[in-house]
Specification:
FMN (chains A, B), flavoprotein (chains A, B), 8-stranded parallel beta barrel, homodimer, two-stranded antiparallel sheet, binds flavin mononucleotide, globular, alpha/beta
Chain lengths: 439, 439
């Protein structure tokens, strides 16, 4: 069985994802409305969610899917998160930022400031990005392993800068006029391959010591980084067995870096569709699937994972051909592997594959509050998860369903918290405070 | 006489500046407290200030002044501004961001998002920065004219990205499933000397079209940039004659770029100290001056403007020696010129210079609500200002004094607004909407 408390994080896409925006009850313009996000953050906080997570990309893919939904248009999470920090009191706010197209000094500073102003509720989803080179002085996206090499060093600089000041550096003695103790300041002086950063950071140490670091890399290099520095590990396993294997492998890999099992939480993503009855849930799901444009979706996913052929050109009920023997993509290795494996293992028809993939590769849970709670409970009991990253489309009614129906069911079982355990995100998650390595 | 409405902007430093933190009534820890800033923003909004402005630096100067006050430790304005946007309804929020140590795609996106979530209240103080190279892979700060060359192109990329989408690009037709009209998208494809950026921006066009651009450069290159792209011009003139000359020069320079006089507002900075009587105001001022540490201040300003000798080593009542003949500094050319000119013109003692410079070179206005209103009124009438950038230390009582006493006096004279004129910052300032150049 998994140890520590059962964690619930929420994943909210840039704006209503998939076909959700086409539903009659979906408001227009959610991508220009702070109120939309405030509603979500406050509702999830009422449901005692530990955290709210915003993914991010740095480009607009000029493909067929662009016209079909708000996939690539979204606010910068580091602008949205502070606004939501001022609109909530307890929920953690995890914003994605790229190590490939940012400077570590800027990133260290922004998260430290977010941690301050939220009272210790900041998290950083550290990504190497799925694209964007063409917007940052490059012909192409930086190559996969170079991205991770840079990310490793980037993290070292950022976390070193977070330790620029002892917690008690700022004595602020009015009588003598001494604002800070100069001996409680560490000049990082990082001289590395990718970065030369002197420091110190121009923000004091923040309430959590370090903001919580989330990581979702799943390639060899990605898993290594996650094991070394990730505190929340987002993943996308489909069966309890796969989940347990990943869980054990990841905690063991972290242990090899000298980290305790309680220093990282493994959160598989699940997409819930909640109904009073299974039939009602299934009807809700079908309604959304019918509004999806299979052709646009299948064509862009074919490209995304470098399938080598275009799924959208195949008849809907034909069995999907086998993918190429070897994995070769510069963007999304783990998603490619997931799709290739799925095709090899299940030999699905195009329609079946379509249905599986429309949640972005995450497990879709269609059911009643009881059946969904059963499922999450079983994964947790089996040691396949420390909790879950609940993937929402952004539709308010679906979030309401989960908070109003599934959360109480989880609480009734004594599985999920009725109150926040502490003040900071770290305390709420049961992650240890990050002490300063220099003081 | 100046045209258009009388503008009041507020300048709030990273945290309590100068010696304000040493006053008995100053709370500790303002540099870690969102409530501190929320109080200020809401008070200024109650006083109908047009905007609230946050300056920024990207390094910690390891000098004597560091111990003496919170000069270089501050949150990133682009993290603070969204939190304040969620905490206010009318006031404009102007955040500083560097063109030297950022990427234009990131900057364009962050301000567009801030403009969205604030309902059109975002401004960008475009600076080339006073330092920071050592935190961004460099031995030294980028050279002055190179910074401005980069800034010119940076602005072109950012403003081009802001025009990525027609205002009506996002049709969101639920029936057909068409989210956007692909013909209403402009791919920038910028290929320049410093930047190659394809676009489009992954944020839709924001309420103001473009966030308002503020600029305070005062070197030859700085003034050129301000004349071409600045909409709020921060400056630091000391006499009405200087103010008028700068005003006319700047509006003429803008006209040479094809811009109308109403397309930019010139706002000299003033530091007010308000009392019921002049004596009370003077006493407030003296109290703060006494708490300053002259040695630390004089030593760091000597370095800052490359004076060539150390003011802190001279007797306090000695006349300051003449500065070097030629200006040579890579950081702050206009401030250097201001200090050198002041020394040459007024031949002050060290003490007199100290008193003049402790407001960072801005004019200090010690007086009653009436005398301060008289002064501001006279500048406005004389065509030396479109309004003012009121420099506060961050001390709440000083902001209260201004809002509760000076603002009503300005309103009584019919000079200053009793209500906001519109919804967006641009509307409130009387600046024209920025139409999309591509649609
Ligand atoms: C729940 C979840 C959220 C993710 N969010 C982002 C994101 O916001 N931005 C991004 O570029 N990648 C995101 N990713 C992708 C991963 O960070 C990573 O880039 C991807 O798994 C490819 O990494 P790999 O090459 O190590 O497999 C996410 C992945 C998962 C499972
Ligand atoms: C009111 C005011 C605010 C300023 N704020 C900033 C700031 O936040 N960050 C910064 O680097 N420079 C700031 N400056 C400095 C100018 O942007 C500019 O860098 C400086 O005047 C030197 O430019 P120059 O070399 O063109 O003279 C400010 C100047 C004034 C007058």
């Amino acid at each position: 069985m998994s140890q520590g408390q059962f964690v619930l994080g929420a994943f909210i896409p840039g704006t209503l994802s998939g076909s959700a925006w086409r539903l009659p009850e979906a408001p227009l313009d959610t991508f220009r409305s702070l109120e939309h996000y405030q509603y979500i953050a406050r509702k999830l906080e009422a449901g005692r969610f530990h955290s709210l997570f915003f993914n991010d990309t740095l480009d607009v893919k000029l493909d067929l899917a662009l016209q079909r939904g708000p996939n690539s248009v979204r606010w910068d999470p580091l602008i949205l998160a502070p606004a939501l920090a001022a609109s909530t009191r307890h929920i953690g706010l995890i914003a994605t930022a790229s190590t490939t197209y940012n400077e570590p000094y800027n990133v260290a500073r922004k998260y430290a400031a977010l941690d301050h102003l939220s009272g210790g509720r900041a998290g950083w989803n550290l990504v190497t990005s799925l694209g964007g080179g063409e917007n940052f002085n490059r012909q192409e996206h930086v190559e996969h392993d170079d991205r991770y090499a840079r990310a490793e060093e980037f993290y070292d600089v950022v976390s070193g800068l977070w330790d620029s000041w002892a917690d008690d550096a700022f004595i602020q003695d009015k009588a003598s006029g001494t604002w800070l103790d100069i001996d409680k300041l560490h000049v990082l002086d990082h001289q590395g391959e990718h970065f030369q950063v002197r420091g110190p950071l121009n923000v004091s140490r923040s309430p959590q010591g370090h903001p919580v670091v989330a990581q979702a890399g799943a390639s060899v290099a990605g898993k290594r980084l996650a094991a070394r520095v990730g505190e929340l590990i987002f993943t996308a396993q489909h069966t309890i067995e796969q989940g347990r294997a990943f869980y054990q492998e990841t905690k063991a890999a972290a242990a090899a870096f000298g980290r305790g099992a309680n220093e990282l939480k493994i959160l598989p993503g699940v997409s819930p569709v909640v109904g009073k009855t299974l039939a009602e849930a299934q009807a809700k799901y079908d309604r959304q699937q019918e509004l999806l444009e299979p052709k646009a979706f299948l064509s862009s996913i074919s490209k995304f994972v470098s399938l080598g052929y275009d799924l959208s050109e195949l008849p809907f009920d034909e069995v999907v051909p086998l993918p190429p023997e070897h994995f070769t993509t510069n963007t999304h290795q783990s998603r490619q592997k997931l799709v290739f494996d799925l095709i090899r293992r299940e030999r699905p028809t195009v329609r079946q594959l379509f249905n599986q993939l429309t949640s972005g590769g995450h497990r879709i849970l269609i059911g009643t509050p009881e059946s969904i709670a059963d499922d999450l409970h079983a994964w947790y009991e089996a040691g396949a998860a420390d909790g879950f990253n609940i993937m929402f489309s952004g539709l308010h009614s679906a979030i309401d369903d989960f908070v109003d129906c599934v959360v109480p069911e989880l609480q009734r079982r004594g599985l999920f918290q009725r109150e926040y355990a502490g003040t900071t995100l770290r305390e709420n998650l049961g992650l240890p405070y990050r002490t300063n390595r220099f003081f």
